[in-house]
Structures are given as C-alpha cells and as structure tokens.
Specification:
Elements: H1 13-25, H2 37-44, H3 48-60, E1 64-67, E2 71-74, H4 79-84, H5 91-116, H6 119-134, H7 139-153, H8 157-165, H9 167-177, H10 183-199, H11 203-221
Helix pairs in contact: 2-3, 5-7, 5-10, 5-11, 6-7, 6-10, 7-8, 10-11
C-alpha cells in the first residue's frame, strides 16, 4: 500500500480524502486493518497528531473502527456512506457539488429512460407531477420521488442506488430553493417538459430539459 505525502495546510482532510479514494476504488476493503498511526504518519509524511485527527474524522463518520489494542479497521460501507464521506466546508459548496453530480447522472438517466420507459412508467412520472399540483405543501417530497422514479425507470441499478443515496442532501437543497418566488410553478413546468420528451423519445430535448432544470436550481442558489 502506498500513500502520497501531504502538504501541511491540507491535513487532515487530505488524509481522509486519500483513504476515501482507496475505499471507493476497492483497494481498502471491509475488515482490513490500517497501518499504525506512526506508520501512517511516515507514509503520509505528516505528524502523528495529524493522522490521529484524520482517524477521528473517519471514526466519527462511521468508516473505521478504532480499538486500543486491535488497531484501526475498515467498516462495511454502502453507496450512501461513500457519497456522504466527504463533507465540504460550507453547506452551499455541498449543494453546488450535488448539482454538478446530478447533472452528470440525470442527463444519462433520461437517455436510458427514453429507451426503457413503459407507458406505466410514464404514468407514474405524471402522477408525481399531479402530486405537486394538488399538494403543494408536499412538493419537495414529490420532486425527489420524481427523480428517483426516473432513475428506477432507467433500469440501471447503480445509478438508482447513487441517486437514492443523495436523498438527504437533495432534501437540504429543496428546503433552500423550493419556496423561491415562482419556483414551484417552474418545477412543474420543467417536469412536464422532461416527461413529454421521454414520451416522444426525443433524446436531445430530454437531456436539454434535464440540464436546464438542474442549472436553474444553481441560478436560484446564487440569489438566496
């Protein structure tokens, strides 16, 4: 196992990020023991206290088990754990990161949905729009169900798992933006456009509508 040395001003977050990458890549596996703090300090080229701080972050967020005599071992992790492992410095940074991730994922989701959606699937999407119209007090929940339903329709289980893992931070985003003047009407209109493009099997339009839908949220974030 080999780690990169770390610049002083970027620790212990960079140590956490490097370990996170090895978790995502599968180089570190559940139950595997990490080297001792002293050995890790040598490998990263930092002080032992910096490594200890990084281990505390990983332990507090549930990614390692630390025992006085048993050392530090990797815990079993899920898609949700991986998605939430890195917490940006501010809430808005997290939300912009979410939007970037969603734009990449959900433009692909609609491409798959166009070729795989049944009439029943499209009816389910339309029901979530009706839900928003009839129960505006539940619009945030209906919006998230719309996007998770789209991911299910894509028939790509990995994409569905990832989008489901983002539900908590998607809720945070909705809390900040859905009450922006006129936004609910815009969401309903944008969802209708996405569904119509899928019904028409118009891939370019579906991708464009999804991209505009997500970018519009970013525009609102800049004004609140």
């Amino acid at each position: 196992m080999k780690f990169e040395t770390v610049a002083v001003e970027k620790i212990p977050q960079t140590i956490v990020a490097q370990i996170r990458k090895r978790l995502v890549d599968g180089e570190l596996k559940p139950g595997q023991s990490l080297p001792s703090e002293l050995k890790l300090a040598e490998m990263f080229g930092v002080s032992r206290s910096s490594v200890r701080d990084a281990m505390q972050i990983l332990e507090s967020t549930g990614y390692v088990n630390r025992r006085k005599k048993g050392g530090t071992t990797i815990r079993s992790i899920t898609f949700k754990d991986i998605a939430n492992m890195y917490t940006p410095k501010t809430e808005n940074v997290a939300l912009y990161d979410l939007l970037e991730t969603r734009e990449v994922l959900e433009t692909s989701v609609v491409q798959f949905a166009i070729n795989r959606a049944s009439e029943q699937d499209i009816d389910e999407l339309e029901k979530t729009i009706d839900w928003m119209i009839n129960r505006p007090d539940q619009a945030a929940e209906a919006d998230i169900v719309f996007h998770i339903t789209l991911a299910r329709i894509s028939q790509n289980q990995v994409m569905l798992n990832i989008i489901e893992s983002l539900e908590e931070i998607m809720n945070q985003l909705q809390e900040k933006t859905i009450d922006y003047p006129g936004r609910l009407d815009e969401i309903i209109r944008e969802h209708k456009q996405i569904v119509q493009a899928i019904r028409n099997k118009d891939e370019q339009s579906a991708i464009y509508c999804m991209r505009m839908h997500i970018q519009k949220i970013g525009d609102i974030l800049e004004h609140i």
